[in-house]
Amino acid sequence: MEEWLYLQNEAAPALLKGFWVSLALIFPSAIFGLVIGVIVGVLRVYGNRPVAAAANGFVVLFRGIPLVVQLFIWYFGLPYIKIYLTPFVAAVLGFSLCSGAYHSEYVRGALLSIRRGQMLAAQSLGFSKVRMIFSIILPQAIRRALPGCGNELIYLIKYSSLAYMITCVELTGEGKILASNSFKYTEIFLIIGACYLAMTSVASVLLSRVEDRLSLPGFEHHRI
Amino acid sequence: MPEGLIAIADALPYLLQGSVVTVIVVLGAMGLGFVLGVPLAVGQVYGRPALRRGIGVYVWFFRGIPLLVLLFLFYFGLCTALDINLSAFTVAIIVLGLISSAYQSQIFRGAILSLPEGQMKAARALGMSDCKAISFIVLPQALRLAVPGWSNEYSIILKDSAVTYALGVAEIMARAHFVATRTYQQLPLYFTAGVIFLILTWMGTRGLRALEEKVRIPGYSPHGA
Amino acid sequence: MPEQILRIENVSKRYGKKEVLRGASLTVDKGDLKILIGPSGAGKSTLLQCINFLVRPDEGRIWLEEKEVHYAHKRDLYAYRQKVGMIFQDFNLFDHLTALENVRIGMVKVKGMAKAQAGERAVAELERVGLKEHMQKYPAQLSGGQKQRVSIARALAMDPRVMLLDEPTSALDPELIGEVLAVIRDLGENGMTMIMATHQIAFAGSLASEIIFMEDGRISERGTPEKILFQAENARTREFCAKIAELYGEKR
Fold first, then answer.
1. What is the pLDDT of residues C122-152, one digit of tens each?
2. B63 touches C at CB < 8 Å
3. Is C164 helix (H, G, I), strand (E, B) or coil?
4. How many CB pairs below 8 A link A and B?
5. What pLDDT score does C252 carry?
6. Handedness of CA A110, A113, A116, A121 (dihedral sign)
7. A41 has pLDDT over 50
């Protein structure tokens, strides 16, 4: 059938290429995002007044402005001050900063939920503030923040599709190009939808596994 | 820099008209999401296993696929395939609404499940049918509990509305881009667009917090007896 | 000839492998106050909830005023539940409604009465339990004893033929128990037919027409208060009664 031939010879290779680009966008952004999230979250809770205020300001800005606008600013706006980024770099930058802001919310919530008693005990044992944060607080906080941060990673998989809007051609972008040429919009985007569903589902399952692996008695997360 | 400010000043009325479009899209989507989300939540909590599974699939589908892909699928794909002529604006509201209904259904489901089991029992003991018990006892309380979650959903939909620019909806982002390509004042204009979104977010959250206060039950805490 | 209000025959309930109720049978005449006692997990609560089908029994039949109840027919079930009032250990007042609205809602939404008329009756019931001044308060603003009294008013407003009380004072602070027991005593003296599960042995002794001891899902012994409390045949019954007499005080 002509349909299957088309799928095999034209669509599949292009979509596969797009898929790799999507993965190339997602993994670095996820890692940078988490790192930024942890740093900003820690600064918001334990930083001194000006530092915490700056961190909070960062979060308000990057959670309040739509990701699309942020991407446009990095790719179309920076040239205004003579900084030229490739679409790929602008996308990763945008995704990292935006998801970092969201991750910091979950990290902050988790840090605040650790009972004060833990900190008092650590301090009375002679821990310095920094040591205390890394050895006592963070290990517990990571488990608490996991569901929220995991959720954010799933969002990242989905909004990686927005890279297309600043001309970085990943899975969605390839699809749009193919479909504009062949007018097979429904078929192609159903396939693309299925790909994303597969990606988000796999990610969800992996995250559940990680949560279960890391769970300690008494720290159960009440999953709805 | 001054050209930047001039560009902003010139474009502002045009951008603000776009914010009206944005707000209508957001309110429409939230409304659709609510109208679908509540029955979906009730079905998922009180329905038969087959219904619960079906709703689960619906939620998984609309929460797993990116907005952009769904917009393209509906606007370019389904509309031509089913030969329906809908404006980008309408499709935007429908798609955003369907996605929101999946998220809102989970918010309401969580709120319903957090109510003590005894509320439903007491209603049944009085002789109420399940339908009456849900309408008069469960939902009035669950909906109040869901307001904070709903507030969150508002800011999400507001930001997602910028994506509809890809379909050509004349909202804030589309207009900012339009003016930017003509005046080459990209940075100031996109920044302004961002600020407008911030203001809209702030206004909405304020409004919803006032709503939360208004419907608050004196002395009530969700974990009270 | 005393009028038979309720007859329960061979009611059983299983949760998975666990049998929580085995073949319980009971008849209640008008004006009776039957009291269920027994250790936790004996099945007292399950039995009461089976009587108004909040829990679906696996076996057994139930007759209200000589007519059998068929719970499969939804309409019959709702009509039946209106005639059987239930008081819960956790009160279960509707948190989003004032005391007045709590008492009124059953009349308006289930019986279909006009709001004004139902409102008057609600005020009267609240007065009967001594809470008229608190009628505009929400459950969160009431004490435990007040909440339970409102729940009694709510059940009474439906004109029940029989009241089921599931450990009505177990969740209350000691000083609030008295006000609720006073209301229940009042109801009994005015002829209300009641089945009550409780640990309040002194109260049981003074008012009950029959005491029923349950253990492991079975009714293991029943009889007049004098017999059960002081001359029980069963060793386990004697042991139990002695223990709670110690805790809750004994009054001859």
1. 999 999 999 999 999 999 999 999 999 999 9
2. no
3. strand
4. 133
5. 38
6. negative
7. yes
End-to-end Cα, chain C, rounded Å:
30
Expressed in angstroms, the distance from the first to the final Cα of chain B is 61
> Rounded mean pLDDT of C96-124?
93
Taking an 8 Å cut-off on Cβ atoms, the answer to whether C109 and B136 are in contact is yes
Domain spans of chain B, in order of start: 2-214
- Mean pLDDT, chain C, as a whole number? 89
Quick one: pLDDT at residue A204?
Answer: 92
Task: State which residues form the domain around A70.
Answer: 2-214
Q: Tell me if chain C has a CB within 8 Å of the CB of B114.
A: no
Q: For residue A88, give the CATH number of its domain.
A: 1.10.3720.10
The nearest CA of chain A is from the CA of B78 a distance in Å of 6
Tell me the C-alpha distance between B122 and C70, whole Å.
Answer: 21
Domain boundaries, chain C: 4-248
Mutate to test the interface with B, among C96, C104, C166 (most CBs of B within 10 A): C96
Q: CATH classification of B2-214 is 1.10.3720.10, yes or no?
A: yes
Is A224 within the bounds of a domain? Answer: no
Fold for domain C4-248?
A: Rossmann fold (3.40.50)
Can you tell me whether residue C17 is helix, strand or coil?
coil
pLDDT tens-digit profile of A117-176? Answer: 777 777 777 777 777 777 777 777 888 888 888 889 999 999 999 999 999 999 999 999
Question: Does some domain include residue A189?
Answer: yes
Q: Which residue of C has its CA nearest to B122?
A: C92
> Which long-range contacts link B133-139 to residues 24+ away (Cβ below 8 Å)?
B134/B42, B134/B46, B136/C105, B136/C109, B137/C94, B137/C96, B138/B112, B139/B38, B139/B42, B139/B112
